[in-house]
Design brief:
single chain; 653 residues; 29 helices; 44% helix; globular
Length: 653
């Protein structure tokens, strides 16, 4: 895992080395082990690299790396898990490669030189962002992995083309002009993140997952020198999977899934440094750890954190799984104070506004793991692949039935659900929860009741989904001078072609919530501690397999992740497999009424909001008062505002 930065064109600098050094220093956390810079003064190209050494710890893995033929220079962030197989293929084809070391960077560079970049990336199984300079054709190529695990920002600032793993590196270049994009801010309020290709700054974009961007040196207009191509996309994989459903009985399918998962996990355990895994005790992380332990001849290192609030604590479940599997388990119980101490660091960690509050426990568990290992495997993406989110279950069961009811009846039911505040629902259901089996106990039932009311009011499945994933339902009315830009959510021409609503939602999440929220959250939190994370479920072979599965192998008997549970049942006792989805949350709603109240009040003071000029104060202040009264739980919508305000203060410091 590494960090990269650089630029092309612009005024010739007297000392590009000093600029490169500042950009490098800004992302030292992404690569504390080594640094390198490559400069071509004639063509105005600078490539900057920070290295976190994971494979080939020797100087042979140093970057920027020049290909054996001398044509290409590359900086690379990520891992190619099948790079040894690619080496064998290159050798068998007699491409005459003489290896200098055993890094995957060298393997990928040789594949690009032999096959071209598109075939090389299609052949690669891994996660990455890269910049490649072609000294022959005088062109710069940027590329990102299929799902967007690794970040890559880019953009024109006047006549300088900048790129980097994080915005904090871009900001060290003298051409960088930070101007907040109010349209992107509106997207933050809808999604709690800013989806690619947008960023918080005008003129700066994120490369989309699976995208290759090429910029040539020439006399054409800057815009005309850019070309793009998509070497892999979710919609194609979804369509192909649905058209080629899997055959075989339940046992045969579980067998095939187990082989694929163990293959992915085995590849991702390749490292020359200590390695472990996050273990929450949930289905996804337990499945990854079970596969790791099954392929390892010694106990796997696992890590979990516990909270003093029992409603958010999974540490006991994680410890039980670790004990049964025989892992070398480390857990840390953190207090609310420990978690709250993370909040002031978040704007710097994420470098553009980001407001998924599970960023807090993710940061804490990353810090714990980084004290022991350099690489940690994660169970992320299991929900998107195998139907785990509650919204899928609601769509599968409640929404279809509810929309058979007459409109007036649906609206009456919605009114009934919202007649009690979320806080009162929580209190009412809480008194009955002790009499229910564990799988039926809901956390924050008031929130879920109000979400169900939104579903009842939606006229179609797409609107239902949009209501569920939107924090603010009309962000442009809150962000001064904004117009919400087009995204996948609003662009029907780019929607996945599916027949069932649940499939459509899963395919949408795989292209929006997963890359723009989950993967951003994990990457930034882990890299803040120089910890590499790997996500075995995002082996594209597993993703393509998942889309060949019939719905009944994902959602069955009112539960999601049926296939994952069947697999896990081969490794763990039944009660561990039956565990309901809990999520990785914190009691943010309580913190905003308690220990974070003064901090938040200062950030959203009405006078301050008016002076800064980004938000209309009235709806924010009204929401804040309602939340403080306990009548509503607006934690997520308020956190969007607060994270921008905290980021804005940090960016001006």
């Amino acid at each position: 895992m590494c960090g990269l930065a650089g630029w092309l064109g612009g005024p010739r600098q007297d000392s590009p080395e000093s600029i490169a050094q500042r950009m490098s220093d800004a992302i030292v956390h992404r690569g504390p082990d080594d640094a390198g810079t490559w400069i071509d003064r004639v063509d105005g190209v600078v490539l900057v690299h920070r290295r976190l050494a994971v494979l080939d710890l020797s100087p042979a893995g140093h970057q920027p790396m020049v290909s054996a033929c001398g044509r290409y220079v590359m900086i690379f962030n990520g891992e190619i898990y099948n790079h040894l197989l690619l080496r064998d293929e290159l050798q068998a084809a007699d491409h005459g490669v003489r290896w200098r070391g055993h890094s995957d960077t060298e393997t990928l560079l040789a594949a690009i030189a032999a096959w071209g970049i598109e075939r090389a990336l299609r052949s690669a199984i891994g996660m990455f962002a890269l910049a490649l300079w072609d000294t022959h054709d005088k062109c710069l190529t940027l590329a990102r992995d299929r799902f967007g695990e690794k970040p890559l920002y880019y953009g024109w600032q006047n006549d300088t083309f900048l790129f980097a793993s994080e915005i904090k590196a871009l900001s060290e270049h003298p051409a960088f002009r930070p101007e907040v994009d109010r349209d992107s801010l509106a997207l933050l309020l809808r999604h709690n993140c800013i989806p690619a290709p947008y960023s918080i700054y005008k003129g700066i974009r994120k490369l989309r997952p699976g995208e290759i961007l090429t910029l040539g040196v020439g006399k054409e207009r800057m815009e005309d020198r850019l070309s793009r191509q998509q070497y892999w996309c979710v919609n194609d994989a979804v369509a192909h999977g649905l058209q080629n459903p899997i055959s075989g009985n339940d046992t045969e399918v579980v067998d095939e899934f187990e082989q694929l998962l163990c293959s992915s996990v085995g590849m991702q355990m390749l490292a020359d440094v200590p390695l472990g895994a996050f273990l929450s005790g949930g289905i996804d992380s337990s499945a990854i750890v079970a596969a790791m332990q099954a392929t390892s001849n010694r106990p796997v290192n696992t890590f979990s954190i516990g909270f003093d609030d029992a409603a958010y604590d999974e540490a006991q479940d994680a410890a039980a799984v670790a004990s049964h599997l025989g892992t070398n388990h480390t857990e840390l119980y953190v207090t609310s104070r420990d978690a709250l101490d993370v909040v002031p660091r978040l704007p710097r960690v994420y470098c553009e506004p980001f407001s998924d509050s599970s960023q807090i426990p993710t940061y804490l568990v990353s810090a714990l793991a980084a004290d022991h290992v350099t690489v940690a495997l994660s169970g992320d993406a299991g929900d998107e692949l195998f139907g785990g989110y509650n919204r899928y279950l609601m769509a599968h069961a409640a929404w279809r039935r509810a929309h058979k009811l007459p409109g007036p009846l649906r609206r009456g039911l919605a009114w009934t659900l919202t007649s009690l505040s979320p806080g009162r629902w929580d209190a009412l259901v809480g008194r009955m929860a002790r009499m229910l089996p564990r799988r039926y106990r809901l956390r924050m039932p008031g929130d879920k009741a109000h979400k169900l009311a939104n579903a009842l009011l939606a006229e179609d499945g797409e609107t239902y989904y949009k209501n569920l994933v939107s924090h603010w339902h009309d962000p442009s009315a809150v962000v001064v001078g904004s117009t919400e830009p087009r995204t996948l959510l609003s662009d029907r021409d780019r929607w996945p072609a599916t027949e069932q609503l649940v499939d459509w939602m899963m395919a949408m999440d795989a292209q929006t919530y997963l890359p723009d929220d989950i993967l951003v959250k994990v990457d930034r939190a882990a890299m803040a501690h120089s910890l590499e994370t790997r996500i075995p479920f995002l082996d594209h072979r597993l993703f393509e397999f998942a889309w060949r599965l019939p719905s009944r192998m994902k959602i069955r008997d009112g539960e999601g992740k049926w296939l994952l549970r069947q697999l896990l049942g081969r490794y763990l006792p039944k009660h561990a497999v039956a565990k309901p989805k809990m999520g990785f949350g914190v009691p943010l709603h309580e913190w905003l009424r308690g220990p974070l109240r003064d901090w938040a009040e200062e950030l959203i003071d009405e006078k301050r909001l008016r002076e800064e000029g980004y938000f209309e104060p009235e709806p924010i202040r009204a929401m804040w008062r309602s939340h403080q009264s306990g009548l509503t739980n607006d934690q997520y919508a308020l956190w969007d505002i607060l994270m921008f305000q905290a980021w804005l203060a940090e960016s001006r410091a």
